[in-house]
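REQUEST ID: PR-0412
SUBMITTED BY: lab tech R.K.
PRIORITY: routine
TASK: structure prediction, single protein chain
INPUT:
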Amino acid sequence: MNTTENGDPKRTEANDEVRITFRMPADVAAGIRASAKANDRSLNGEVVRALREYLARQQRQQKRQD
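STATUS: complete
OUTPUT:
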C-alpha cells in the first residue's frame, strides 16, 4: 500500500482521493458486490456510497445526543 512516512494513505495528485486496501468477511464482500450490481455501480462506488450513508447516520445520531 502506498503510504506516507507516518503511515497515512497517500493522496493521488489528480484528485482528492486516497487508495486504501482492507479486508472484509466473504459474506460482506458478496453482499456489497450484489448491491453494486443491483444499483448499477462499481464495487468501489457502492462501498463509498455505503460508507457515506453510515457516516451521515453517525453524524445525525451524534447531533441528537449533543
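NOTES: Residues 34-65 form one domain.
REVIEWED BY: pending
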